[in-house]
Recover the amino acids of this structure.
C-alpha cells in the first residue's frame, strides 16, 4: 500500500515513510491510495478473533512494509491485559435496545486516546528503523489533558524516543494534571506553561517551525516529532474498534450480520469520526455518522451549511478535549468527498490559514450531508444528560460522551431514524469527577483525588485502578515555563 498527500495526489510514500514523517512536506496529510475492503467473508472471519487479532488483520492490510510477526507483536504489546482493565479491550455496553456505548477508556490513561497512542510508538519506532533514520525521535506534545497523558504512557521507556509534554497551567483538571506530573519513565518530561491551551500549542508550533533550533537538535542526534492525530499511525488503530464493535454486536445477537448501524461520535479534531467513515468506506455496514460537538460548534455549522468558520468565540467547556476550532482531520474528509481533488483541498486549506474560513462547493456539501448529521450540546444540557442517564440506567457518562448521547437523542427526534447506534464513549467518568459529581447534584468541598472516592461512594461504581493508584504516586514534574522559554525547556531536556 502506498500513501499520497491530500494536497498532492501524485506523491507516493510507503506506510513507514508516512508514519515517520507524520505530515507531508506540502502541508497535506497522508492517506492510503485506496482503502482496503472488508468485502466477502471478512466480518465472518473477524468475528471469531480477539481484539488483538482483529487489529492485526485490519492494520496489516494497510502496512505491507511491516511483517505479520511485527504487527502481531505490536498489537500484543499495545493491547495487553496489563494495560487494559477489560479482556475485550474495547467492550460494547448496551444501554437499551438499539443504543450501544463503545467504551474506549479501559486503557492505562482512561481515555480513548490510548487506543491509538498505545500503538503509535511501536509503529513510529519501527518506521524510523525502516526509513533508515539514525536520529532519536523527540516527541513534543501540547495537550489540553488527555493526549498528553496517553502519549506519555505510550512512549514511556520506548527505545530511541524521548517525550516532552507541555500543558496549560490552569487548563487541565486536578486529576489530569496529576496523571501527567506523576508519570514514570527515563525518557519523559512534563512542563506546565503559563496561559491557556492555545499558548501551549502556539509555543510547540513555534518550536517545530524554528529551523535553527531544528538544525541544532539534529546536530545533537535528535529529530522533533509529533504524536498528534494527523499521523496515519494514530488514525489506523482507530478503524479497528469500529469493526470490532460491529463483530461484538453480531456475536451478542444485538444485530444481524449485514445489518446497518449508525455511529455517534463526540468530536474534536475529527480523528475518531473519520476512522468510522473509513470503516464505512471499507464496507462496514454503517449508515449515518452523527458528529457531536459542544458549544465550540464549528463542525455542526460546517456539516449543516458547508461553511467552515473559525472566526468565533472560543468556549472553555466541561468537555475540554472537544474545545477545538480547527479540526485538522477534516482535510482528509474533504479529500475523499471531493473525489480526491488535491488542488481544491489545498485551496480550502489556504483560505482557512489566511482568512480563518472557507465555503465548500454544493456537490461536496451534498455528499457530506448524505452521510453525516451534526448537532451540539452546551454545558448545562451536558449535566442534565449525565444525571438522566444515571437516574434511568445507573450508567455514568463522562461529559464528552454525554454530549454525544444528547446529540443522538436530537438526531432521533428530528429524523425519526431509530437505527441501532454505537455511541462512542471516549473517557471514564472518573476522569472528570468534579463535573460528574456536580451534574449528579452532589455538593462537596473535596478536591483532586478525594473526588474519586466521593463519586465511588455516591454511585457504587468502581473507579479505574490507574486513577485510584495516583494517590500513591510522587509528583515528579513541577516546573512551569513562560511561552518564550519553551525552546529552552526542550534544549535542557535533550541534554539530560
Ligand atoms: C480527543 C478526545 C475527543 C475528540 O476526539 P477527536 O478524534 O479529536 O475528534 C473526544 N473525547 C475525549 C475524551 C477525547 O480525549
Amino acid at each position: 500500500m502506498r500513501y499520497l498527500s491530500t494536497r498532492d495526489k501524485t506523491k507516493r510514500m510507503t506506510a513507514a515513510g508516512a508514519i515517520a514523517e507524520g505530515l507531508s512536506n506540502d502541508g497535506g496529510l497522508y492517506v492510503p491510495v485506496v482503502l482496503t475492503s472488508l468485502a466477502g467473508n471478512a466480518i465472518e472471519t473477524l468475528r471469531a478473533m480477539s481484539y488483538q487479532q482483529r487489529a492485526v488483520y485490519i492494520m496489516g492490510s494497510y502496512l505491507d512494509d511491516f511483517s505479520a510477526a511485527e504487527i502481531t507483536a505490536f498489537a500484543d504489546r499495545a493491547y495487553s491485559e496489563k494495560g487494559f482493565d477489560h479482556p475485550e479491550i474495547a467492550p460494547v455496553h448496551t444501554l437499551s435496545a438499539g443504543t450501544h456505548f463503545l467504551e474506549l477508556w479501559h486503557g492505562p490513561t482512561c481515555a480513548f486516546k490510548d487506543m491509538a497512542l498505545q500503538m503509535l510508538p511501536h509503529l513510529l519506532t519501527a518506521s524510523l528503523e525502516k526509513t533508515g533514520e539514525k536520529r532519536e525521535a523527540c516527541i513534543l506534545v501540547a495537550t489540553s489533558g488527555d493526549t498528553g497523558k496517553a502519549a506519555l504512557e505510550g512512549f514511556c521507556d520506548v527505545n530511541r524516543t524521548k517525550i516532552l509534554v507541555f500543558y496549560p497551567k490552569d487548563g487541565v483538571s486536578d486529576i489530569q494534571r496529576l496523571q501527567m506530573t506523576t508519570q514514570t519513565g527515563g525518557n519523559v518530561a512534563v512542563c506546565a506553561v503559563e496561559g491557556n491551551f492555545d499558548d501551549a500549542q502556539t509555543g510547540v508550533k513555534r518550536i517545530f517551525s524554528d529551523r535553527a533550533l531544528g538544525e541544532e537538535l539534529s546536530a545533537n542526534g535528535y529529530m522533533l516529532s509529533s504524536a498528534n492525530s494527523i499521523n496515519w499511525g494514530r488514525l489506523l488503530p482507530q478503524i479497528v474498534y469500529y469493526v470490532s464493535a460491529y463483530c461484538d454486536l453480531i456475536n451478542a445477537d444485538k444485530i444481524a450480520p449485514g445489518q446497518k448501524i449508525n455511529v455517534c461520535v463526540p468530536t474534536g479534531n475529527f480523528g475518531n469520526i473519520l476512522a468510522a467513515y473509513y470503516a464505512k468506506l471499507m464496507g462496514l455496514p454503517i449508515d449515518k455518522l452523527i458528529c457531536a460537538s459542544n458549544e465550540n460548534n464549528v463542525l455542526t455549522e460546517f456539516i449543516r451549511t458547508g461553511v467552515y468558520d473559525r472566526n468565533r468565540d472560543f468556549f472553555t467547556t466541561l468537555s475540554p478535549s472537544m474545545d477545538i476550532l480547527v479540526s485538522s482531520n477534516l482535510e482528509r474528509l474533504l479529500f475523499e468527498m471531493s473525489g480526491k481533488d488535491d488542488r481544491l483541498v489545498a485551496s480550502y486549506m489556504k483560505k482557512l490559514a489566511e482568512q480563518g474560513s472557507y465555503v465548500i462547493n454544493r456537490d461536496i456539501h451534498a455528499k457530506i450531508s448524505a452521510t453525516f448529521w451534526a448537532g451540539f450540546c452546551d454545558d448545562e444540557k451536558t449535566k442534565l444528560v449525565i444525571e438522566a442517564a444515571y437516574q434511568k440506567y445507573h450508567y455514568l457518562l463522562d461529559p464528552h460522551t454525554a454530549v454525544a448521547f444528547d446529540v443522538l437523542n436530537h438526531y432521533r427526534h428530528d429524523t425519526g431514524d431509530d437505527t441501532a447506534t454505537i455511541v462512542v464513549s471516549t473517557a471514564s467518568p472518573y476522569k472528570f469527577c468534579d463535573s460528574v459529581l456536580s451534574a449528579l447534584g452532589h455538593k462537596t468541598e473535596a478536591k483532586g483525588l478525594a473526588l474519586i472516592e466521593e463519586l465511588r461512594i455516591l454511585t457504587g461504581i468502581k473507579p479505574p485502578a490507574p486513577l485510584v493508584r495516583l494517590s500513591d504516586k510522587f509528583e515528579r514534574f513541577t516546573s512551569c515555563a513562560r511561552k518564550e522559554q519553551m525552546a529552552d525547556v526542550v534544549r535542557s531536556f535533550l541534554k539530560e
